[in-house]
Q: What sequence folds into this?
């Protein structure tokens, strides 16, 4: 069946384009060849239609030319109207779980006939062919728009991320290049187990062996499998049912195990239990930009999140995206080590990109990890949380009900269709997201600046002091629980000194014994036989001399080693046994086991108390507090083990220390309650930054830094979006004009596509105008030029839609705000208001200052479509 459809598919595509460009008249000339066929048309409820046959047209092409698609590629006896199939497609775009069976039942309801499973098969087959035709038509539209080059969607689908602006095309009003961004792009990636596909059961064979190979969303399996053996899989827990071919390890196997890794694996194991074996495809591994636009998808086959999936995404980032990307992953801290140890390590380092953790998931990581990898502390991050894929998966989970029993081809087709609509919705939301982020950042600056200034004034603290405290906090947790290098080297030095002195004593004893073995009044004489055994005496002397020479060489080597250590450690005079540093090191060596147990306990308890402080913040949401709480419960087990180790070491001291009560330690809420900290070498209680008020000021300062970074990033992204809209508009008019002049039948479809895009862009312009009108707006919304692009050609419309030479838009120039945006009109017939609760004006009235020339564009495209 598929082979028969594929043989006539090019003719069907041409017939569909012709039908869209010039639908046939309903009049039927009975003198011409024709035939009558049963149909489903949910709009007219016709049961039969008469189709005129052209001389060279087959019945499937003739049907399509008249707006119907036959249910069979050869001599169809039933057809479904294209408008009916399009209705089903659009329902699925906005309700992905709406199944073919449900739509078939809906048609039967309208036709007042009993539903039979045969109708479901008819609709499914016709709908698949219809989607195939639409995909072929869209490829033609992409070709005329110049969007058929490899990776075009990834590079250009999100203008705020990828439309880097250089300067204007008019030398009379040159704009400076956009300010450098710390991170050129922010990317997030994660896996989702919802979109599974069940494997074949028993001996049942699968009939549909096709694979959707021309998708620009899915990465090919051959590319992903290049990284299958990059890391060696660690041994899994006995209580986890591993997948049959889970080779290559998970994304953390390339790094030393950490508490973050253990928490992630403990959570992941719940998804693995009892799942393997029943499903063939177990989900998708996705990546997206910070605005939610999908970059790449990977099909996970009989496995969880293997290392090869994020490594393949990292490889695409290196190959396709510009340098210095920030990649958010819920285990980004340990995956960064895996990445560095892989074949991509050097390329990733040269690329200048780095990994971090997502804001929500990062709250369950230990405090040292949060100080390095959490978005709140990363310079240039802004207020982005990189939890985008949580929203993506929450919405895409509705696909699960229709992909569970699909063939691989239909599953991928449904997923691709869903994410195409997702990207269209995310594009329509770009200006709203930029506007809301700008408002949020302004609110943070306004409220936190006042609160921080008042707190600093009351405590007599400066911003420089707060930044120094942040550095000290980072350094403290970097060395927390570790032996100081001086302690380690001092122990080695003292051990060498002790061994050297012991050797010297042995050498002195050996030399003395050798000398004393010489008889008094010794005189040389020739060997004689008698009471003295010459051979035995010779052997004994040789052994004594060999031992002495060995001790001499050993003593010389140790003396040289001690001298070198003294030079490196800056010790001017060799320590004597009475020196204070020598005695202190001896005491530390005697109590080392106790000290190490105490340091470990300090590390765990202090981190726990600092994480509890974060959980008790008023701004922390309930779900985040719950997430932190579960993580702390797991960490309490580690604290309990550390308490047991401490009690064991304390009992072996002379005199022994009192043991710790686990119940008491587990209920500590403040550092002052942990009296044992006074015995540690690095008592945190003496630090000024551990006080709750000081920590709150440090948090507010970080929040202000991120808010100011967000303002800068939104300024850049708003101008990129503005320029992309202008360039796209010029391209649309040029392409539509060329298609109309050439009388290309693709003209009608291109016009429809451009009209939809135009209406979205008009909405963006309105929102950007509201952004420019904000008090505190510091950006520039005059049109720029994309880097590497030639100057835009004049628009064929009477007036250009966007002012190419508009003045800079600043908060200090309200008139400039309007002038920079007067080129795009908000058409009254579109009824675009700001009463949707997304931060705009609630009166719903269009701003007169936004009136311009988009009305000309609407008229032009309307005339072009006619």
A:
């Amino acid at each position: 069946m598929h082979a028969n459809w594929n043989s006539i598919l090019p003719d069907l595509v041409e017939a569909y384009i012709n039908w869209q460009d010039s639908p046939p008249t309903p009049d039927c000339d009975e003198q011409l060849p024709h035939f009558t066929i049963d149909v489903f048309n949910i709009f007219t409820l016709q049961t039969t239609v008469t189709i005129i046959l052209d001389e060279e047209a087959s019945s499937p092409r003739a049907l399509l030319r008249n707006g119907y698609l036959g249910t069979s590629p050869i001599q169809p006896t039933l057809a479904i109207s294209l408008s009916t199939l399009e209705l089903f497609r659009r329902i699925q775009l906005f309700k992905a779980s709406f199944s073919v069976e449900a739509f078939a039942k809906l048609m039967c309801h309208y036709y007042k006939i009993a539903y039979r499973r045969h109708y479901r098969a008819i609709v499914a087959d016709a709908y698949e062919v219809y989607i195939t035709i639409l995909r072929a038509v869209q490829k033609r539209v992409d070709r005329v728009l110049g969007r058929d080059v490899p990776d075009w969607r990834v590079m250009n689908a999100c203008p705020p991320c990828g439309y880097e602006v250089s300067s204007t095309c008019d030398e009379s009003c040159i704009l400076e290049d956009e300010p450098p961004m710390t991170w050129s792009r922010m990317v997030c990636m994660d896996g989702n187990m919802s979109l599974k596909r069940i494997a074949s059961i028993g001996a049942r064979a699968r009939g549909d062996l096709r694979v959707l190979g021309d998708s620009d969303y899915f990465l090919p399996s051959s590319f992903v499998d290049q990284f299958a053996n990059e890391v060696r899989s660690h041994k899994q827990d006995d209580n986890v049912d591993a997948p049959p071919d889970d080779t290559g390890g998970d994304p953390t196997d390339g790094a030393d195990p950490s508490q973050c890794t253990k928490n992630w694996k403990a959570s992941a194991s719940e998804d693995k239990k009892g799942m393997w074996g029943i499903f063939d495809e177990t989900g998708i591994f996705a990546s997206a930009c910070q605005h939610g636009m999908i970059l790449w998808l990977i099909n996970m086959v009989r496995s969880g999140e293997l290392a090869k999936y994020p490594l393949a995404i990292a490889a695409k980032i290196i190959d396709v995206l510009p340098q210095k990307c920030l990649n958010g992953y819920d285990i980004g801290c340990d995956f960064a080590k895996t990445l560095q140890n892989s074949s991509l390590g050097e390329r990733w380092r040269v690329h200048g990109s780095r990994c971090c953790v997502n804001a929500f998931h990062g709250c369950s990581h230990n405090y040292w990890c949060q100080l390095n990898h959490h978005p709140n502390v990363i310079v240039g991050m802004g207020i982005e949380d990189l939890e985008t894929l949580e929203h993506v998966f929450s919405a895409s989970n509705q696909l699960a009900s229709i992909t569970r029993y699909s063939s691989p081809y239909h599953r991928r087709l449904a997923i691709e269709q869903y994410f195409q609509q997702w990207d269209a919705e995310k594009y329509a939301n770009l200006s709203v997201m930029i506007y809301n982020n700008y408002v949020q950042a302004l609110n943070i600056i306004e409220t936190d600046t006042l609160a921080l200034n008042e707190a600093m004034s009351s405590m007599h603290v400066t911003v420089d002091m707060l930044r120094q405290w942040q550095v000290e906090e980072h350094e403290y947790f970097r060395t927390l629980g570790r032996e100081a290098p001086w302690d380690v080297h001092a122990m080695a030095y003292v051990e060498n000194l002790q061994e050297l002195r012991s050797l010297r004593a042995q050498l002195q004893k050996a030399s003395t014994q050798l000398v004393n073995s010489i008889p008094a009044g010794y005189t040389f004489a020739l060997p004689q036989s008698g009471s003295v055994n010459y051979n035995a005496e010779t052997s004994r002397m040789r052994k004594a001399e060999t031992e002495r020479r060995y001790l001499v060489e050993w003593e010389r080597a140790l003396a040289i080693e001690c001298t070198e250590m003294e030079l490196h450690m800056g010790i001017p005079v060799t320590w004597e046994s009475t020196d204070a540093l020598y005695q202190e090191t001896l005491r530390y060596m005697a109590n080392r086991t106790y000290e190490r147990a105490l340091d470990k306990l300090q590390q765990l308890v202090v981190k726990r108390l600092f994480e509890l402080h974060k959980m008790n913040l008023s701004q922390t949401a309930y779900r985040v507090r719950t997430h932190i709480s579960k993580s702390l419960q797991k960490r309490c087990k580690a604290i309990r083990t550390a308490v047991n180790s401490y009690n064991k070491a304390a009992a072996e001291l002379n005199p022994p220390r009192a043991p710790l009560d686990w119940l008491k330690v587990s209920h500590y809420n403040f550092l002052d309650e942990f009296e044992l900290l006074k015995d540690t070498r690095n008592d945190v209680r003496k630090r000024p930054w551990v006080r709750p008020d000081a920590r709150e000021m440090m948090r507010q300062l970080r929040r202000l830094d991120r808010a100011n970074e967000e303002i800068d990033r939104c300024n850049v992204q708003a101008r990129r979006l503005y320029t992309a809209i202008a360039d796209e508009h010029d391209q649309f008019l040029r392409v539509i004009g060329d298609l109309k002049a050439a009388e290309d039948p693709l003209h009608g479809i291109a016009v429809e596509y451009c009209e939809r895009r135009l209406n979205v862009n008009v909405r963006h312009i309105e929102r950007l105008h509201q952004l420019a009108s904000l008090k505190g707006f510091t950006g520039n919304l005059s049109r720029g030029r994309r880097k590497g692009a030639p100057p835009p050609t004049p628009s064929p419309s009477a007036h250009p839609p966007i002012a190419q030479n508009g003045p800079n838009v600043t908060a200090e120039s309200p008139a400039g705000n309007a002038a920079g945006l007067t080129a795009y009109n908000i058409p009254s017939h579109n009824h675009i208001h700001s009463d949707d609760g997304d931060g705009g004006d609630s009166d719903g009235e269009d701003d007169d200052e936004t009136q311009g020339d988009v009305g000309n564009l609407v008229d032009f495209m309307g005339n072009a479509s006619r």
About this structure: The radius of gyration is 38 Å. The chain has a mean pLDDT of 76. The chain has five domains: 2-143, 183-200+209-428, 485-516+534-588, 594-681, 697-865. The CA atoms of residues 200 and 206 lie 7 Å apart.
